[in-house]
Amino acid sequence: MTATTLELSLGPVLFYWTREDYADFYRAAADWPVETVTLGESVCSRRRDMKLDDWLGIGRELAQSGKRVVLASQTLIESEADLRDLRKLCDNGEFTVEANDQSAVQRLAAAGLPFVAGAALNLYNPASLAVLARAGMQGWQAPVEMSRDDLTRLLADCHEQGLEAPCEVFAYGHLPLAWSSRCFTARRHQKPKDRCKFVCQKYPEGLALRSQESREVFTLNGIQTLSGACQDLRHELPTMAEMGVASARLSPRAESMAEVVAAFDAARRGALPAPGPLALVEAEVCDGYWYGRPGMDNTRAVTAP
After folding, report:
1. Which residue windows are coiled coil (predicted)?
2. What is the pLDDT of residues 224-277, one digit of tens each?
């Protein structure tokens, strides 16, 4: 396989921010060196500050700045109201949808609309990818726990079978691991889920869950569980390009995201810094899944001289 020109994409904001925070963030993102921006609420339907029209407005502004815009669907569908919102999203008429749930796939396929398959669909083999390609899939995200070696084999198998839909890898941010019908953040504040008073908005980068050894094992984000450490695959961007990966996803954080994007942009152009956390970004780093190890491992730190 020949190397591809690796693009950078900005994933949806996973945390619950204010309308002003979203506006400021995407106003700045319009000038960042990323080719694709994915918008929308993919975690919790109770986060209603931003309506579909608000996301469409931001999307139009980003599109005018030359960005490819995608709208993310909710990952966990729990009610008829969620399905109604999903139908509106799929029928937006302007932007491609990232399907993070099979109900979104069904809606988009039935309407004959192209879509991007999100990592939560758990696509591990060419047979699954072929089914979704026939349904209209135009791109897909590798599961966050898939190793470099497994993905290399999968991409090679897809190439042999003529499945050429672009693949995206989650390259930076707290890894999305699981979703639940319960809201962990509300429970932390002793509030029922349906009367949570949106306490997750107090944590613009999630609520750290520490082990008895005071290690940040997970990050709680409402109904979503994320990794405690922040995945950083900057040094793997040249390898991804050689493998045939089309895009590296950067998951937004509340602080210093411009520096993160700049560092990844430099890395894809060959300017690789010494191993270590990104400047101005205070977070424990992990890369274990990529190397076929426990996800929380920091392999570069273990192997550094």
Report:
1. none
2. 999 999 999 999 999 999 999 999 999 999 989 999 999 999 999 988 765 555
Q: How far apart are CA 131 and CA 154, in angstroms?
A: 15
Known binding residue 200? Answer is yes
Question: Is residue 90 marked as binding?
Answer: no
Tokens of 67: 């960005």
CA distance 44 to 65: 29
pTM above 0.70, yes or no: yes
Count of CB atoms situated within 10 Å of the CB of 255:
13
196 is in an annotated binding site: yes
Distance (Å, rounded) from C-alpha 46 to C-alpha 42?
Answer: 11
Q: What is the pLDDT of residues 5-34, one digit of tens each?
A: 899 999 999 999 999 999 999 999 999 999
